[in-house]
Amino acid sequence: MQLSYLGINVEKLDAQWNAILFDVLGLEARPREEGEPLQLRVDDRHHRISLYPTGENGTAYVGWEADTQAEFDRVLRGLREQGVACEEADARLCAERAVMRMVYFEGPDGVRTELAFGGVVDGQPFKPSRATSGFNTGEQGLGHILMASADPAATVQWYQDKLGFKVSDYIHWDEAKATFLHCNPRHHSLAIMNPCFGTGAGELNHLMLQARSIDDVGRGYDEVQRLGIPLALTLGKHTNDHMTSFYMMTPGGFAIEYGYGGRTIEDEEEWEVQFYNAPKLWGHNLGKAQD
Ligand SMILES: [Fe+2]
């Protein structure tokens, strides 16, 4: 299983978005007509991120992808047995998501959640809009997301029972209590916390994209300073996943973390679930909004 794709409603697509998406992250935009969503590539997939300029900020959907048809069928059967009403996506919707098959349902906190299989690999290679070595995706998927929940314990249980996620570890700091969950070797694809730091229940706090080189992150950090992009957190390193990263504040009301070097969970038996009292080993100081 992997975090396959993300759909996000945004007030509008402006110069600030362009600076973050293209000048710093080097994502590739698919050609689009007026009124269509902005589909963004991070790897050989058709796209993994869709931004919908709807006039309002918010998470449109979160897409999880089964590795095999058999896993898709098994997880779907489990969802239905546990009383989750799943709707099968039609051909048009599957084409929009660029997947072979998809079902959608309501996840915790009313978040539209989708289970897919067969993400479309594009015939054309990924062409980053800034010279980078690309992103660490593959079996680890798009990256990770941190969302707030009105009932974090129930939500964490939901992902374990319904999608088979496993707990990686926990961090409690300031007013935050966060649980980190994995569904492939990526240390966490999903983290759930109580509503805090301005992130309400069902809202996205941040999306993390992992570079394949620390130099990509360092040069991105240079671009952030040059362009005056507001930082949510300065460069730093996390206690639990060991990611070296910084967080940009987007106009969409959530942050994008750009990181390198996150550790993986290769052996479930060997992994020890830890409880940390701080999210950072160093850095990750509160950024100042820049004008
Ligand atoms: Fe993160």
Automatic annotation (TrEMBL):
Pfam families noted in UniProt: BphC_D1, Glyoxalase
Keywords, in A-Z order: Aromatic hydrocarbons catabolism, Dioxygenase, Iron, Metal-binding, Oxidoreductase
Keyword Amino-acid biosynthesis included in the entry's annotation: no
Cofactor: Fe(2+)
Alphabetized GO MF terms: dioxygenase activity; ferrous iron binding
Domain of life: Bacteria
Stretches that traverse the bilayer: none
CDD domains linked to this entry: BphC1-RGP6_C_like (cd07237), BphC1-RGP6_N_like (cd07252)
Record-linked SUPFAM superfamilies: Glyoxalase/Bleomycin resistance protein/Dihydroxybiphenyl dioxygenase
Location of the VOC domain: 2-118, 141-261
Claim: Methyltransferase is one of the keywords in the record: no
Homology family: Belongs to the extradiol ring-cleavage dioxygenase family.
Protein name stated in the entry: 2,3-dihydroxybiphenyl 1,2-dioxygenase
Native source organism of the sequence: Alkalispirillum mobile
Source species taxonomy: Bacteria, Pseudomonadati, Pseudomonadota, Gammaproteobacteria, Chromatiales
